[in-house]
Amino acid sequence: MEARAAARRVPTSPMVALAALERNPVAFEVIDDAGHHSISAERGKYGKVWLTCQCPTSWSDGWCRHRVNLLCFRYDSLVDGNARARRAFEQIVLGTTLHAAAKDADHALKAFDTCLAAFDSRRPGRIVGRDLARFSDATADLAAVASELVDALEKLRRLLERT
Ligand SMILES: [Zn+2]
Fold first, then answer.
1. Which of 5, 30, 38, 105 could potentially form a cystine with 152 if both were Cys, beta carbons 3.0 to 4.6 Å apart?
2. Handedness of CA 81, 87, 88, 89 (dihedral sign)
3. Regions in the chain scoring below 50 on pLDDT
4. How many Å lie between the centroid of ligand 1 and the Cα of residue 57?
5. Contact at 8 Å (CB) between 51 and 67?
6. CA of 67 to the centre of ligand 1 (A)
7. By the 8 A CB rule, do 15 and 47 touch?
8. What distance in angstroms lies between residue 41's CA and the mean position of ligand 1's atoms?
9. Which residues of 32-42 are buried (b: 16+ CB within 10 A; e: fewer)?
């Protein structure tokens, strides 16, 4: 598990040099049930990426699914992202620590959702009975993926802080 997690952190593409970026910064608008939100991405020196989103979740939690989706190059919720802007965005983030952390967080979110769904569907009706050991195993699995999610989101949050 540890080796797989380490392998995921290796950037899959080299970072495009700051001076070679087509556009920097790049701004997008995303839409969801709560309305429109502005997102902006900018690369600084030493691979630092500032990625901000003006949605309420961003302000309260320090991260949001809009930014994770963009960092995983999923553009379904974009209002105005033409191919050129998307390519410029990918140049800004590819190969950076933030990109790797977002992919780790995305993986941890999916693992947690899958485990939670399994927990909900397999939870015995009478917990303190014959199936108590199975329930205990399921809670241990859920605790493990929740802990990995906490770590992944904490790392992502630190990288998203505007410092
Ligand atoms: Zn957002």
1. 105
2. positive
3. 1-3, 5-6, 11
4. 6
5. yes
6. 6
7. yes
8. 12
9. eeeeebebebb
Tokens found for residue 143: 């605790």
The pLDDT value given to residue 133: 92
Task: Say how many Å lie between the CA of residue 15 and the centre of ligand 1.
Answer: 24
- How many domains does the structure of the chain reveal? 1
Structure token digits, residue 92: 């800004």
What pLDDT score does 136 carry?
A: 93
Give per-residue pLDDT as tens, 45-80.
999 999 999 999 999 999 999 999 999 999 999 997
Distances (CA, A) of 126 to 24, 117, 132, 133, 163: 57, 18, 8, 12, 50
The pLDDT score that the predictor gives to residue 81 is 77
Residue 17 is given by DSSP the state P
Q: Which domain holds residue 114?
A: 2-160
Q: For the sheet with 49-53, list strands across it.
A: 26-32, 35-43, 49-53
